[in-house]
């Protein structure tokens, strides 16, 4: 697997993509914004009270609508002013708790919704998507990128509203004290948006690279842990360490580039605020000397101006979280917006399928391949028949089975089940009716019983035990420490290869499907056991239609029909005896395998 680049193509995200998530929790956001506005209004009281206190102590009148009203309300009494100050602080404490509950709860609900939608989408996507996507990157999207969107929708949205309201209220307070001084202060503001825009774009660009590289590292780590046995067998630990070191160094470099621009914003804003302070002291001091402002108003003005430092700092946080969130939302959109060629809806109504299968002129070529995997395959399988597909590796056996399950779509020709095109049947109905056992076995970290009953609505031990007996695994399960309640390790690591295959087969058989598709699924099982299993399947009543592929020809010699594939085409077909008499590929390969078995001292396979 190539871990040098991202396997999921990011999409561009906009504010429109955020609205559906906000709309679902609009009441929480509305109440949170309302409480936040009240908190920002209460923030104006401290500078007003400081200004009033200084002017009262100096015996000077207060100017400005807000200061005059508050001084009239307090009666100019220092004690009353202090009680108002204390009351404002206490009320802010309660209101701050409330808006945090509103915004932070909303962000957690939104993160849950995104994760759920993302998970559902992953289950809906077709097999072609997973042939290109890396598991580690998909996991990174579900954790790191969802978390970045969560922060944007919670703390980021909160800071944006708080910054906007705070700035407007403080600006109104400054204007109420001195319009001219506020005008001089405002002259320092117009160039700020351009600097903020430049820095935020850089943050967005570098954060996207950071997230993509983090996905690469996650994919590499997941691949390493899954293949740790192979790595150790081939003594590749030094090379894997070196490979991880290179990817980790790239991740560090991208993070340092991001940190440069994140670190640039705050010092810049502190520099601007310091210049503003010098400007206000210089011009405001002249106004006090000229009697146009009282000393209390100047102190209050400076205090309020310093309150603007918070919006400036919060603006940096907001832009950083917004750019990170939008970059991650774009990456998530690359998956959420990925088209799926399959529909769970059915255009026909079918109660149950009997198992008749017709392949008519089926052709298929894998994406990004110029070589046809299947060419003009025509084959009929009657209900209850056992049909074996044999041939060399790459002859098209697995591809034909995958097309039947609609893991891929037929490009030419048609596949019909009981007269219905597989494209007309719903995926749920089709896959409920077909028990598919692929070459790659996967078991869950559950008990043996839960693994076998995985496809059932409820656990029926009688069904579970019967399936285990059919798969010739019952006796070995009984020998486990807790029998059917023995918990398996990850991917069934505490079982042998043959045991895992038979346990997975039992899981398929427990569903009693009318069609069984066995794709070389018993290659780790000894030939005698494989023949016993196939014989057991032919005793089922009602007898399922069985489509089986294998490289061991003697295990399928009792099949009703045998089809030999070569280069994606049918080379020959017939019963075991008919194919032996023809003396073609099947007869030649069968006798070769028979001779090899005799040389190795195996039992008679004739």
Task: Provide a short characterization of the protein structure.
By secondary structure, this protein is α/β, with parallel strands linked by helices. It is built from 22 helices and ten strands. The chain has two domains: 15-334, Up-down Bundle (ABC transporter transmembrane region fold); 357-438 and 515-599, Rossmann fold.
Strand and helix layout:
Blueprint: H1 19-23, H2 26-42, H3 45-57, H4 65-74, H5 78-124, H6 127-132, H7 135-177, H8 179-186, H9 192-226, H10 228-233, H11 237-289, H12 295-307, H13 309-336, E1 357-364, E2 374-381, E3 386-391, H14 397-404, E4 412-417, E5 420-421, H15 427-433, E6 434-437, H16 448-452, H17 461-470, H18 474-478, H19 497-509, E7 515-519, H20 527-537, E8 545-549, E9 561-566, E10 569-574, H21 576-582, H22 585-599
Parallel strand pairs: 3-8, 3-9, 6-7, 7-8
Antiparallel strand pairs: 1-2, 1-4, 4-5, 9-10
Features:
Rossmann fold, four-stranded antiparallel sheet, 606 residues, ABC transporter transmembrane region fold
Tell me about this structure.
With 606 residues, the protein is an alpha/beta fold. It has 2 domains: 15-334, Up-down Bundle (ABC transporter transmembrane region fold), CATH 1.20.1560.10; 357-438 and 515-599, P-loop containing nucleotide triphosphate hydrolases (Rossmann fold, 3-Layer(aba) Sandwich), CATH 3.40.50. It is 60% helix and 9% strand. The strands form 2 sheets. It has a 6-stranded mixed beta sheet with strand order 6-7-8-3-9-10, with helices on both faces. The protein has a 4-stranded antiparallel beta sheet with strand order 2-1-4-5, covered by helices on one side. Helix 2 (26-42) packs antiparallel against helix 5 and helix 17 (461-470) crosses helix 19. The chain starts with 18 loop residues before the first helix and ends in a 7-residue tail after the last helix. The mean pLDDT is 78.
